[in-house]
Every structure is written in structure tokens, then in C-alpha cells.
Design brief:
Helix content is 40%, strand content 17%. It has 290 residues and is of the alpha/beta class. The protein has one domain: NADP-dependent oxidoreductase domain (TIM Barrel). The protein is globular and about 55 Å long.
Length: 290
């Protein structure tokens, strides 16, 4: 628990969570499709996460599909009161493992009910509207119809808080004119820093920013500078990359994902790493070069 405490906490709507959480995406099979290779290990990772003090788990019913939510339910239900589960809607998986938009009000409602059923809850803590854009990058366009549909489900009591994923600053502003936004989940890491201004703007509004691909995603971060800082701090490069995100802004919440107990423990240890001024100055050059 002490490692998580070192990273601090932040508000996620009416909930307060540790800034180091856990992303469940990698518990599904290869390509986030199908069942895990070893279901027992997947369940063990989830149980150790909560036993270690993690109180923020990110998931979606289109991971698998349905795989990660069912694993979460099997491992953790009935859920601890302190646990906040954040899910997302806006896509479905094809039989070929493709990621396909599902953005109509009817499709979003169906996805909310799928999440409710597979997680085994009466209301979802947080639902992010996942705007498809260009898959891993946002693109401009109105999201009024989609976000208003989720706001209606929130008014029905099926959703407690609303968030956004893969969005532009203009889309955040549009959504905030419809209902409260408690978090934004976008692609961001040490080398991918297009959202620097948005992070600061959200922080001033008390809105959490949750970077996906915090370690580079399908293309892991690689940098001689990062490796050098890690050696000096007796840490791994990925631990330093996570520590940098925690140092970047107090409203950043981390959800690094893994299907390995050893990797989970390594990620968790990053919460206790403190970067000195020299390390921060060196790491800043990576973003400048990206």
C-alpha cells in the first residue's frame, strides 16, 4: 500500500483513487481477442492488484470481447467499496478481431447493458465514450449525439460518471456543455506529448487525465536517454517512464496493463520513484525530439 500512497491520489468524479491504477486490456488473448492463455494467472493479477491497494481498474466489454469484464467479475465480485471500475463504449469487435465503430445511441445503450451484465453491477462507476477517430488518434467532429445518449443513461441511474477517450480539446468542451466530464483518456507518454496543453487545461478544471499507451503500447518506448536515467536511478526504463508521467501533472492517473504478476509488481514499484531535477531535464529532451 505504501508504494501507491507515495504517488498520491486524485478525484475521479465523486470518488478518490490512487494515481497508480491497473489496465485490464492485456488480460484478454493476443490482439486483445479471445480468452487469456492462462486464466488462473489473469485472475491472480487482478486479485493481487486489489490486495496491493489498487482502487482504479480500467476495462471495456469490447476487450475480448467480454473477456476482461468476466475475469474481473470472477476475480473480484463482490467488489470492495473502494474499488472504482472504469469502462468504455463506442466499439465492437468483428469475428476477424477488427475494431469497429459502434457509436449510435442504440449501440451505446447495448454496450452499457453488456458492461452491466458482465461486470455484475447495477450501475457503472465511470463510462468513457471512446470516439473512434483514427483508432489511436483523435479527429475533429461533433460527439453531441453520442455523449447525450450516455448522459441520458446516466440520468436513468445506469452510469455514475462520464468520461471521454480519444478526443480533441474541442470535443471535450462540447461534451462538458452536455454533462460533467470526470476524465479524459488519450494517447500520451514520454515521447508522445501532443496533449500537453490539454492536460494542463483539464487540471485547472479538476478533471483527471488518463494516458493510454503510457509505455508506448504496440511500439514500446526506446531511448538511450531514458535508459541512462534508469541506470542512474537503479530502475527499469519503463518504471522511469511511469514515474515521469506521475511527475508531469497531479491530475494524471496511470493504468499500465499487464498479464504478468512480475510485470505488475514492477509497474507498481514505479509509484515510489522520485525523479530529481537532472532526471526531469534529461527526460524532457525526449519529448522535444518526438
Amino acid at each position: 500500500m505504501s508504494k501507491l500512497t507515495n504517488a498520491g491520489t486524485y478525484a475521479l468524479g465523486r470518488r478518490t483513487v490512487h494515481r497508480m491504477g491497473y489496465g485490464a486490456m492485456q488480460l484478454a488473448g493476443p490482439g486483445v481477442f479471445g480468452p487469456p492463455k492462462d486464466p488462473a494467472v489473469a485472475l491472480a493479477v487482478l486479485r493481487e492488484a486489489v490486495a496491493s491497494g489498487v482502487d482504479h481498474i480500467d476495462t471495456s466489454d469490447f476487450y475480448g470481447p467480454h473477456v476482461t469484464n468476466r475475469l474481473i467479475r470472477e476475480a473480484l465480485h463482490p467488489y470492495p467499496d473502494r474499488l472504482t471500475i472504469v469502462t468504455k463504449v463506442g466499439a465492437v469487435r468483428g469475428a476477424d478481431a477488427s475494431w469497429n465503430p459502434a457509436q449510435s445511441p442504440a449501440a451505446l445503450a447495448a454496450a452499457v447493458h453488456d458492461n452491466l451484465r458482465n461486470l455484475g453491477v447495477d450501475a457503472l462507476d465511470v463510462v468513457n465514450l471512446r470516439v473512434m477517430g483514427s483508432v489511436h488518434a483523435p479527429s475533429e467532429g461533433s460527439i453531441e449525439l453520442q455523449f447525450a445518449a450516455l448522459a441520458e443513461l446516466q440520468q436513468q441511474g445506469l452510469i455514475r460518471h462520464l468520461g471521454l477517450s480519444n478526443v480533441t480539446a474541442a470535443q471535450v468542451a462540447e461534451a462538458r456543455g452536455i454533462a460533467e466530464v470526470v476524465c479524459v483518456q488519450n494517447h500520451y507518454n514520454l515521447a508522445h506529448r501532443e496533449d500537453d496543453e490539454l492536460i494542463d487545461e483539464l487540471g485547472r478544471a479538476g478533471i483527471a487525465y488518463v494516458p493510454f499507451f503510457p509505455l508506448g503500447g504496440f511500439t514500446p518506448l526506446q531511448s538511450d536517454t531514458l535508459s541512462g536515467v534508469a541506470r542512474r536511478l537503479d530502475a527499469t526504463p519503463m518504471q522511469v517512464a511511469l514515474a515521469w508521467l506521475l511527475a508531469r501533472a497531479p491530475n494524471i492517473l496511470l493504468i499500465p496493463g499487464t498479464s504478468s504478476l512480475a510485470h505488475f509488481r514492477e509497474n507498481l514499484a514505479a509509484a515510489a520513484i522520485r525523479l530529481d531535477d537532472d532526471a526531469l531535464a534529461s527526460l524532457a529532451t525526449i519529448g522535444a525530439q518526438a
